[in-house]
Amino acid sequence: MTAELLRIGEGPIEVEILPMVGARLHRLRAFGVDLMRTPHDLAEHHGADSWFWGGYAMAPWCNRLPAGASRLAGHDLRLAANFRDGTAIHGEVATVPWRVTDADARAATFRVSAGGAGWPWTYDVEERFAVVEDRFEMGLRLTNTSADPMPGGIGFHPWFVDPVHVAIRAELTHPSNLATTPLPEPVTGRTDRRELGAFPEGLDATWTGLADPPVVLAWPEARIRATMRGDEAVRFIVAARPTGIPAVAVEPETQAPDGARRLGRGEPGGLELIQPGATLTLNASLTFVRI
């Protein structure tokens, strides 16, 4: 891998991106403060330990799919396990090289083509990052380049560094991302995150029925607050604080966990069927203020 960094942002927001490692966010800094979990050793952490650092695109699916042989939308899949629990997690593009298709001091666009092996469909993914004064913008486009309808889901997976407080303004939740039921349930107890506060260690869940804004983050010691918003494609917020990781992942997504099962059984929140030549899009932003 290469440690070459592409930098954007000329004002209070500064961003560093690694095009050759999934076009992932390596650093997000607001008002001079690093707000993302950024490794010191690029080769070790953005390579071998890539799932718990920075921020990356998830495509053509988010969360877990079964590794090995399975069947989806009339096609045979044979996905390689890429996570310690033996699943195929977060798609195929989070660690591969992307092409830089456009870049200046305030914005950068990246593209990758993939699929056609264990995932039998082919597709293009375009990612755009931009800094507009105190706002950081993220955009994803997943285009089906194969001849048959392709299941698809997309999202962003940023890790926000401690000490961070999180509010997820949602009425409904899938309280565990490891074993989900067909329908979400009302938030309660640990899953009621509507008030800003510390995110519970070990909680790994999905929220839907989102308010506007769906997410607020705050770094009390740095006196910084961020508001996360998304377009109509952002129907779910996945958030997790694994034991031993000093950061919280807060992920805007188009799908709920177990997206393949949901599509196959007609449950809500599943992978979408993208027609040949069609595109699934998602846009989200973070607006930062001093508090």
Keywords:
single chain; 291 residues; mainly beta; Beta-galactosidase, Chain A, domain 5; 14-stranded antiparallel β-sheet; 4-stranded antiparallel β-sheet; 2 helices; 50% strand
Largest pleated sheet: 14 strands, antiparallel
Mean pLDDT: 94
pLDDT < 50 runs, ≥5 residues = none
The radius of gyration is 18 Å
User: What are the secondary-structure elements, in order, as H or E?
Assistant: EEEEHEEEEEEEEEEEEEEEEEEHEE
Count of helical segments? 2
State the CATH architecture.
Distorted Sandwich
Q: How many β-strand stretches?
A: 24
Inertia-based shape: globular
Helicity range? under 10%
Proportion of beta-strand residues:
over 45%
Question: What name is given to the CATH topology?
Answer: Beta-galactosidase, Chain A, domain 5
CATH class: Mainly Beta
Outline the structure in words.
This protein has 291 residues and is mainly beta. The chain has one domain (6-290): Beta-galactosidase, Chain A, domain 5 (Distorted Sandwich). It has 2 helices and 24 strands. The strands form 5 sheets. Strands 5, 10, 11, 12, 13, 15, 16, 17, 18, 19, 20, 21, 22 and 24 form a 14-stranded antiparallel beta sheet that branches. Strands 1-2-3-4 form a 4-stranded antiparallel beta sheet, with no helix packed on it. The protein is globular. The N and C termini lie far apart (39 Å).
